Amino acid sequence: MDTALVNPEIPSGDVDMVVEDRERHLFRVARRAFTEQSVLEREHDTIFDRCWLYLGHGSEIAGNCDFITRAVGGRELIFNRDRGGAVHAFLNTCPHRGAMVVRERKGNALSFRCFYHGWSFNVNGRFASRFEEGNYGKEHYGGGCADLAQVPRLESYRDFWFVNFDRNAMSLADYLAGAREYIDLVADQSEAGMEVVGSGQQYRINANWKLLAENSIDAFHGFPVHSTYFDYLKNIGSLRMDSGTGDFTARGMTDLGNGHAVIEYASPWGRPIARWVPSWGEEKRELVERLRQNLVQRFGEERGLRIAETSRNMLIFPNLVINDIMAITIRTFYPEAPDRMTVSAWALAARGEDSELRKLRLFNFLEFLGPGGFATPDDQEALENCQRGYKNRREVAWNDISKGMPRVGRPMNDDEEQMRCFWRQWRQRMAGAR
Amino acid sequence: MNADASLAGAPGLDDPGLRSRMEDFLYLEADLLDEWRIEEWFAMFAEGATYEVPPTGDGDETDPATSLFYIADDYVRLRERIERLKKKEAHSEFPRSRQRHMIGNVRVTGMDAGVAEVSCNFVTWRAKRGVVDTYYGKHRYRIDCTCRPWKIKAKRSILDMDMLYPGKLTIIV
Q1: Same domain? A300 vs A404
Q2: Domain membership flag for residue A357
Q3: Chain B neighbours among A 78-137 (CB < 8 Å)?
Q4: Chain B interface disruption, residue of A105, A201, A227, A353, most B CBs within 10 A
């Protein structure tokens, strides 16, 4: 291992692509992991086909018979509620000849009908066409083989719905492990529940998907990459570094198990729940203070103010980001190729939120996040630059992810332990572990 | 409104030269963007103006107070957007991309108290490091024609792409 780190060879196997030396505080990831088609194919087998993947939020199909269609883990899925309100996830392919049965992005329907030959299905997936005798034998409808196929596993936690294509996977609750506590910190923000606002954003980044997994929970890059965002906050009076809960990097990082990790810190920005900043004006101050007090009443001083004040960036392995920052974004991303991913991002908000705060929340979101924001595009630029830089991978073969390894005690936010959590899990999964 | 503004000086909707004057105005706007003369571009906007890019596929009338936009700038945020773009630390536009704005199908569809409702189609190309991004859709403007020069009161760029393939919306389309 020493030799490998001092004078690293280009690794040949998937497992060798992550090298950790705890004694010498060195952690390296081979750049090949971001560039090879064979790695991507193995990721599909060992990660996307076996891990719990985020499907959607229950509020996106709020009413009975609501449906949305979504690409998840390389599949095309239908996420819907049937007439009785039960939630389903179907593989969006006609059992007859394969056409996608539902072609709209979202809607409300009493049944689904494949346009190709007219096979129809109830919204609970059951085959519903009536053909005259002589068309199909009696056995044809047996065993559900004319029904829409269900995704092997569908489970939810606090209205966050996940699928798993591995029938034998551990339960979602076990898989989420320590991440449940942090989903609670989001889900508890409103007694009325949370909801996804509008239709979300979809965009493409010309970089390997794992670069966004790293970036989404990386505080080390915050000030170098996003100085223009902080300038903006300062200019308009939205920057508040006066928090009693400590500075931007203070609280630290938590390993949540199973490759998940979170960083938590005092917010330098305003939060619609519930941290006021001067640019919002005095009239909002009271409104925000009431929300704070309500949280304190419901959860006590410590947890109430934690929900109100602190920001959290969380990665749930492999590709779900729930960042509860100046707004809440749910983000998931899938590789189209080793050097290209598609990102889907949604804004989550308190249901029944005051309309002025909702507006502030959406503005907070788009000021930082998304393709037109003052920060996310610069992240994309960084990721795409990394991907470009990996063209040199034969000569410069390794990424360094060692920051903070000698530190005694809790890792800092701007250490790289959260990325190491991701990579250890990645290494284990790529080696075939469940 | 400017002190010298007078409705009498504003063109009527049936003014035969209105569309070509409007085209000249919009061509100038496109040219300033192509040349990265973004402060001059910003100066074409009236105080209190808005600049918006709604989510793709959500129709023309979406409201940024209730729906998540890509861009929903009031005058201050737009000014800050321009300030940001001038910095080297706006990394996505450093080194600067090259861009070319094409507009067509210009129509003045209404005139109310000297403020014109204008729509046009657009295609904008952005090139950087060998990647060419194409943005296309429709601009909708409200343009105050009572002042000299005319001022943009609102610009909304409605993208026709069914998702934002280029990934970034760092230039003004």
Answers
A1: yes
A2: yes
A3: 105
A4: A201
Q: What is the pLDDT of residues A20-61, one digit of tens each?
A: 999 999 999 999 999 999 999 999 999 999 999 999 999 999
- Determine whether the interchain pair B76/A370 forms a contact, defined as Cβ–Cβ distance below 8 Å: no
Q: Which residues of A touch B129 (CB under 8 A)?
A: 388
Supply the pLDDT for residue A340.
97
Which residues on neighbouring strands pair with residue A54, listed in sequence order?
A162
Interface residue A340 vs chain B (CB under 8 A): no
Residues A231 and A89 both lie in one domain: no
- A365 CB neighbours in chain B (<8 A) are 68
Q: Are residues A139 and A238 in the same domain?
A: no
- Do A110 and A232 sit in the same domain of this protein? no
Local confidence pLDDT in tens for the 173 residues of chain B:
444 445 667 889 989 999 999 999 999 999 999 999 999 999 999 999 999 999 987 777 899 999 999 999 999 999 999 999 999 999 999 999 999 999 999 999 999 999 999 999 999 999 999 899 999 999 999 999 999 999 999 999 999 998 888 889 999 99
pLDDT tens-digit profile of A155-172?
999 999 999 999 999 999
C-alpha closest to that of A84 among A68, A65, A67: A65
The pLDDT score that the predictor gives to residue A242 is 65
Domain B7-58+65-159 part of CATH 3.40.50.10540: no
Half-sphere exposure in the Cβ direction for A33 (13 Å, CA)? 21
Predicted local distance difference test score (pLDDT) of residue B166: 84
In a domain, A252, yes or no: yes
Final residue belonging to a domain, choices A158, A176, A204: A158
Given an 8 Å threshold on Cβ–Cβ distance, is B58 in contact with A231?
Answer: no
* Cα-only R_g, chain A: 23
Q: Residue A419: name the closest of A40, A29, A36, A47 by CA.
A: A29
The Cα–Cα gap between A428 and A318 comes to: 12
Q: Which H or E run includes A176? A: helix A172-176
Q: Are A380 and A231 in a shared domain? A: yes
pLDDT recorded at residue A252: 87
> Among B79, B74, B76, B72, which Cα is nearest to B42's?
B79
Q: What is the CATH number of the domain that holds A135?
A: 2.102.10.10
Q: Select from A69, A204, A215 the residue whose CB has the most chain B CBs within 10 Å, as the one to mutate to test that interface.
A: A204
Domains of chain B by residue range: 7-58+65-159
Q: What are the structure tokens assigned to B76, written together?
A: 């201050």
Test B131 with A206 for CB contact under 8 angstroms. Answer: yes
ipTM of this predicted structure: 0.91
DSSP A402: -
Taking contacts as CB-CB distances below 8 angstroms, the residues of chain A near B56 are 202
- Report, as ranges of residue numbers, the positions in chain A whose pLDDT lies below 50: 1-4, 6-7, 244-249
> Structurally, how many domains does chain A consist of?
2
Residue whose C-alpha is closest to residue B98's, from B34, B168, B31: B34
Name the residue range of residue A201's domain: 188-430
Give CA A9 to chain center in angstroms.
34
Same domain flag for A291 and A403: yes
Contact B70 A372 (CB under 8 A): yes
Q: Tell which of B62, B68, B75, B83 to mutate to test the A interface (max A CBs under 10 Å).
A: B68
CATH code at position A290: 3.90.380.10
- pTM, entire model: 0.94
